[in-house]
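fwd from M.: "can u put these together and see what the complex looks like"

so here's what she sent:
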Amino acid sequence: MSETVRHVSIDPITRLEGHGRIELFLDEDGGLADAFFQIPELRGFERFCLGRQGEDMPQITERICGVCPEAHHFASTKALDACYGAPPPPRARALRELLYNAYIFSDHLLHFYYLGGPDFLVGPYAPPQERNILGVIGKVGLELGTEVIKHRGYGQRIIEIVGGRPIHPVSGLPGGQSKGITEEERAEIESMAASAVEFAMATIGIFKKTLLEDETFIRFVSEDSLALPTYYMGLVDEDGSINFYDGDVRVVGPDGTEYAQVAADGVLELIDERTEPWTYVKIPYLKDVGWNGFTAGADSGVYRVGPLARLNVCKGVGTPLAGAEYEAFLDYFGGGPVHATFAYHWARLIEMLSAAERTAALAAEPALMDGPLRTTLGEPGEGVGVIEAARGTLIHHYRLDDRGLIDAVNLIVATTHNVAAISLSIKEMAKAVIRDGNVDQGILNLVEMSFRNYDPCLACATHALPGQMPLIVDVRDADGALRRRIER
Amino acid sequence: MAKAKIGVYWAASCGGCDCSLLEVNEQILDVADAADILLWPCATDVKYADLAAYADGEIDIVLFNGAIRTAENREIAKLIRRKTKLLVAFGSCAHTGGVIGLANLATREEIFTTVYGEERDRWPQLVADEGGRELRLPEFLEKLAPLSAVVAVDYVVPGCPPPREVVGQIFSALVAGNLPPAGTVFASSKNLCDECPRDRKQEKIARILRPHEEEPDPDRCLLDQGFICMGPATRGGCNAVCPAANMPCTGCAGPTANISDQGAAMLNTLASLVGTGEEGEDQLDAEDAILAQLDDVVGTFYRFGSAMSLFRGRYHERNRTSR
């Protein structure tokens, strides 16, 4: 080798949502010395949300992310439900859940066929101009390609019917929904959902025939160096099953034992965050475990969220077809928790199937068609809304003043939870594949594949304000006189 | 016919504009047949070094979404301007600054203090030394700007995100090879009310309502009912989907062709509508009292356009009305 490459930038990293870059530093032997995952963007939602009307927040915060606006829209709406002490009536709740499961289906489909999947469906070493959805269609054929496009369209159409728009829906209001659906629309949703279930099953079939037969994929899910034994976080319902829309926050340790299970508003107590001078994103970790640097294991507060984390915290996925696939997943790995980062791809497809099954079931839910759309609101106050975005647990925390304007806002966003783990995964992959200073585009793509597992949304990530929202509690006596002010 | 060369780029954006390109469903396959994609970070593996290596003017058309928030956004916008024949401001952020233009109400220091805390030495640095390794971040600019503030723009596609039908029109023109003249705005030349299914009678507004306060009548004009609907000052082209979903228009498509400041135009419209319907000298006071019910003037009237507004920048707390 005539010269040693010392510093390599992957800029921008591609096939994800938002801006990111990877800086690799090589040592004299041409191996990896260090790697950094940088997020070079910030938009400042935390600041300009102050003073806005509370009920405008579902539409303002969804502009954090146009790939998962539904997640922000309803995390926000749920926070407002809590601020006004106004849980939605059954009809509104059914409408929200219906839209929400269609979103999970559509978003997971997008990742498998458009963003992360092409690495395996077309091939990790394929020419860069083919590693995309068009390359996938070239590989799987126009017929299946058309089905991919059609079913993504079905998910978006359901969001449009229930939410008013396919991207950036508008229907969520504190204590309810702005609109219902007609019987004709319900029937349309039911038939699209039935087709979505079949398509999700077919997609898992494709996964098994391609990725599970692919040498590189098998190596990547089996190699210990590419597995990260971390803590995991996700929402579960009262049966311990995954629930994307609502539930308790459950955290398990690397050995699978429960670390915590708390109601939505308790999650803020579990997390602390830190800043690094070289990135615009903040890095959260489990407060009581502590920050121990970019490292995995039981002694490190690094934890993960998203499809793999949800399968690791739940006792089941809650729907029959996906349930059987979940068992097959556990059998393959010899039981959970599964630490193989590349298993995110598989977990995502099991969830995609489960979301399709839930959409089909909800479309037949009688509550969908009758009853009030809104409930009576109480006085504005403080509230937390937690939801499972496609990429993981999403938390919106607001305090409203007496006019219902935003007085304080705190957003802990799915990808942000994963930032420390993504940094680790990139480093481990770079260490494993960079030899003798060889950093051709195929090698660099392998490095990028390590973050694509997480389906990161970096536009979301830079809007986190994890940790404690400043809180002021006034203690008054019976006459209303201020006795004590507690600030934190 | 030679294949067209197209690009898609995002600056400070949410990715919704990128997703809106997929909303045309199967039509995207026609685009793929008719054009080669030379840049699209969300969906293809083209890096900045590849972009820089293209000849000047090599790309035929770039759909540019997102606003100019960082020095990197500005630099890439200028690079893309050199590499493409036609540049399209695609979506609200590129067109008018978008929702994130609301950040211009605060200074950079205030934003950083809110996000990263009071301790400046813990803020992200433009150049950081991490164990002898230099890591750089692009500057977060003092003010956010729409695309047209930094480079010349050939077409505008309004909307947050642009609606499916409009995206379909652009793609059809692209596939047919008959793109319209520079200066075209891909939207209706009329306002949103023109295509709204609701019945508008221009009634006097005696009480301003916020969307969560009351369930609107589904057939009557929202403004007539007292909800602040931005329809009169906003470009049509979306089929009034928000009013159809029982929610007011928030103005994402920007001002109509004949007005420059969308918020001012809407406030003007509203000022002429408020009143109790009675006559007399105390009517001015009554109108003032109704307008004082507006709780968030900037967030309501300049939701998507504060970066393009006449006031451009600081908005003082004392201007906030109170009930």
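replying to her w this: Residues 188-323 of chain B form one domain.
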